[in-house]
Every structure is written in structure tokens, then in C-alpha cells.
TrEMBL record:
It comes from the Bacteria. Belongs to the RNase HII family. This is Ribonuclease. Its cofactor is Mg(2+); Mn(2+). PANTHER family: RIBONUCLEASE H2 SUBUNIT A, RIBONUCLEASE HII. PROSITE patterns: RNASE_H_2. Manganese or magnesium. Binds 1 divalent metal ion per monomer in the absence of substrate. May bind a second metal ion after substrate binding. The keyword RNA-binding does not apply. The lineage of its organism: Bacteria, Bacillati, Bacillota, Clostridia, Peptostreptococcales. It catalyses: Endonucleolytic cleavage to 5'-phosphomonoester.
Length: 204
């Protein structure tokens, strides 16, 4: 069971809008890196929430809907493959995370400002107080929730991308470097949405 003891300590200190942030797609060969920021109401625990990689697709989608219903605010940040190539994946991930924080909105579309950030792995350049956690999805309940939001959002993007770039089975591999995906790149070449900086060995 994912603990929310870290959030509870902050709620006890009267922090109300704790934004938990995670990303997905960092290691992909294709497409955007996507980050999600989630603010849950104080003392909220959602049964079943854990690292998105440990959940089935069906369970992720059920929890995705539950998180959206319960959350005070959710924000998404996306950085394209072209920018990833320009600034590197680490900086792109941080930029996506900051965009997710900037895009935090409630169900009425109103901007919600966090008062504390709990971030998976990275330290962000911002004035908000923050803490970073390696393997945050396993340590912080809200980061696990953010991982689910980011994963489902990006998986849906992959399905859309697969309609345009049909040769790469993106709806199956989600842009990761599977054998099938690598062979498709070698056969058909990269698209405009591939991360060229990730393909040097494949295209060599």
C-alpha cells in the first residue's frame, strides 16, 4: 500500500495544495515526454493507486477517472521530441514538470496555485518549496497518482500518433525501443516525431 505519510506531515503543517509530480516517456524513442501534476484534497487516500507501471491498462484507466473525480486540480505538461533533441531529455523532463505545475486547473478550468511540490527524482527551478524523491511513485501516494495520469494521457497520445505513423506499432510499444520498433526505424527511417538524439546506434 502506497503511504501518504509524507503528504500527511505537510497537511498537518497546514499546506493545503500539495502538487505531486511525475513524468512518463523519458526513455522513449518517439514522441513527447509528458508530466502530470496532481493536487488531492487533504487526507485523501485512493485505494489501489500505485506506480502506473505496476498496474494493468484497465486498472490504470479506472484509477485515472477516480483521480480526476477526487482531485482539487490536475495539470499536464508536454515537451516535443524536437525540443528533447535540442535541450536533452533531463532538461525536457524538468520543463514538462514545470508546465504541468503551471497548467494545474480545477474541474471548472480555473488555475490552482500549489503551496508545496513533491517531485519524482528531479529538483525544479521554481520558487515553490519542494522535495524530491527517487522512486517517488513507491514512496508518495500523490506521485503514484500523477504517474497514472501521465501514463494514461501519453498512452492515448500514442494511439493517436499510430494513426499517422502506422509503420511503427506505436499503439503497442508506446514509443519505447522494442525490437519491432527498432527494426521499423531501420526499415522505414525515422519520422519527424522520433527523437533523433536517441537513434544514433539504431541508424548507424
Amino acid at each position: 500500500m502506497e503511504s501518504y505519510s509524507i503528504e500527511k506531515d505537510l497537511w498537518d503543517k497546514d499546506y493545503k495544495n500539495i502538487a505531486c509530480i511525475d513524468e512518463v516517456g523519458r526513455g522513449c524513442l518517439y514522441g513527447d515526454v509528458v508530466a502530470a501534476a496532481v493536487i488531492l484534497p487533504p487526507y485523501t487516500y485512493i485505494e489501489g493507486v500505485k506506480d502506473s507501471k505496476k498496474l494493468s491498462e484497465n486498472k490504470r484507466r479506472i484509477l485515472y477517472d477516480t483521480i480526476y473525480k477526487k482531485a482539487i486540480a490536475i495539470g499536464i505538461g508536454r515537451i516535443s521530441s524536437q525540443i528533447i533533441d535540442d535541450i536533452n531529455i533531463k532538461q525536457a523532463t524538468k520543463r514538462a514538470m514545470l508546465l504541468a505545475v503551471e497548467n494545474l486547473k480545477n474541474s471548472n478550468g480555473q488555475i490552482v496555485t500549489p503551496d508545496y511540490l513533491l517531485v519524482d527524482a528531479e529538483h525544479l527551478h521554481t520558487t515553490y518549496p519542494q522535495e524530491s524523491f527517487v522512486r517517488g511513485e513507491d514512496l508518495v501516494h500523490g506521485i503514484a497518482a500523477a504517474s497514472i495520469i501521465a501514463k494514461v494521457y501519453r498512452d492515448d497520445l500514442c494511439r493517436d500518433w499510430s494513426l499517422n505513423d502506422r509503420n511503427y506499432a506505436l499503439d503497442k510499444n508506446k514509443g519505447y525501443g522494442t525490437k519491432e520498433h527498432r527494426e521499423a526505424i531501420q526499415k522505414h527511417g525515422p519520422t519527424n516525431n522520433h527523437r533523433l538524439s536517441f537513434l544514433k546506434k539504431i541508424l548507424k
